[in-house]
Design a protein that fits this description.
mainly alpha; two-stranded antiparallel ribbon; two-stranded antiparallel sheet; globular
Length: 345
């Protein structure tokens, strides 16, 4: 699955009359991927029914992978324009509207966030935007808490007869928190850090990158690392437990708490996700909660949609998209809480 995500990110680009044109030299490979997906879905027909993961009712079995592809394709278009990860929209909306087990949804959400991060990370590191020195001390803690979050999430759904409804209600409450964070947080493009804390200074958490808009190299340094680690420990647990990409929280903490410029914050967030989500994903994989028939169409759909969304992002007003996503998050929060309470009654 990860290979598919990386494949879409490695398409050749050329600039022509101010427009970016995607040039794909691997048409045969694309055709092979599509044919492989179709063959895979046919071969897994019996597994899909036997696992009992979905109550298909009177619908043919193949309709759900197709709906997932369209659903994630739309999410892929919205995500780049809004600045939120696809997993933040995928998990709550899929839990609210699809008849899949919440364990499979959370597993797919982690794989989607991981694929997105791994696809963009090499280029971000090459441009000196993703700072590995900042990431390293953070993930030493958040990786552990993300694993614990995955273990706790799986344990709750299996240990209690109605555990999945507890998780659904908790997911709704977390969405309310995300809604508030998105509503109140502000981004500072170039924060001014006058002094570093002793730990950040000892670890030499600073860097620089060339900023085209200013036509110069911008230097920066990080502060309040101990406070940031506490925040990231909590964020890692939430990401592992609910299968959410943590970009919605990583960026504000790096930018507003630790003083990272917004470009460094968003890029380093991808590096953090690539480690945290990889660790948490293994918990779901080991428990059989990553179902390829759900994950594969979802990754392909969001990968294609994200390429379109990236082009539309320059034309659409960011404020409109931000409020649209916030409305979707609020709706998903209400629906998940309602669905969980209804299941407990």
């Amino acid at each position: 699955m990860i290979v598919i995500g990386i494949h879409f990110a490695k398409q050749k680009t050329k600039v022509k009359k101010g427009a970016i044109v995607m040039k794909n030299k691997n048409l045969k490979w694309n055709i092979f991927l599509v044919l492989t997906l179709v063959s895979f879905l046919i071969l897994t027909n019996e597994c899909w029914s036997a696992e009992g993961t979905v109550d298909t009712g009177n619908l043919p079995w193949w309709i759900w992978p197709f709906i997932l592809f369209v659903f994630t394709f739309i999410i892929g278009i919205i995500a780049p324009m809004s600045g939120v990860g696809g997993g933040v929209l995928f998990v709550p909306l899929c839990t609210a509207f699809f008849p899949f087990s919440i364990d499979f949804i959370r597993g797919a959400g982690l794989i989607m966030a991981l694929t997105s991060a791994l696809s963009s990370l090499p280029e971000l590191i090459k441009k000196r935007l993703a700072n590995i020195k900042i990431m390293a001390p953070i993930v030493c803690i958040s990786m552990i808490t993300s694993i614990l979050g995955g273990i706790v999430g799986i344990w709750i759904t299996n240990a209690f007869p109605k555990g999945k409804y507890y998780i659904t209600i908790a997911l709704g409450l977390v969405l309310f928190v995300i809604f508030i964070v998105m509503l109140t947080s502000k981004r500072v493009e170039f924060p001014e850090v006058k002094t570093q804390d002793s730990l950040s200074k000892t670890l030499d958490l600073k860097g620089d990158w060339f900023e085209p808009s200013l036509n110069k190299t911008v230097e920066y340094k990080i502060t309040r690392l101990p406070v940031g680690i506490i925040f990231f420990a909590l964020v890692g647990f939430i990401a592992g437990m609910f299968g959410l990409g943590a970009g919605w929280a990583n960026v504000p903490v790096l930018n507003l708490v630790m003083g990272a410029p917004i470009k460094i914050a968003t890029s380093t967030s991808m590096a953090i996700i690539s480690v945290n989500d990889a660790a948490a994903a293994w918990i779901y994989i080991s428990k059989g909660a990553v179902l390829p028939v759900i994950v594969i169409p979802s990754i392909i759909g969001i990968s294609i949609g994200a390429r379109i969304g990236a082009r539309l992002a320059v034309r659409v007003k960011p404020a409109f998209v931000k409020y649209l996503v916030m409305a979707i998050m609020l709706l998903a929060a209400v629906l998940n809480i309602f669905k969980g309470i209804k299941g407990l009654m």
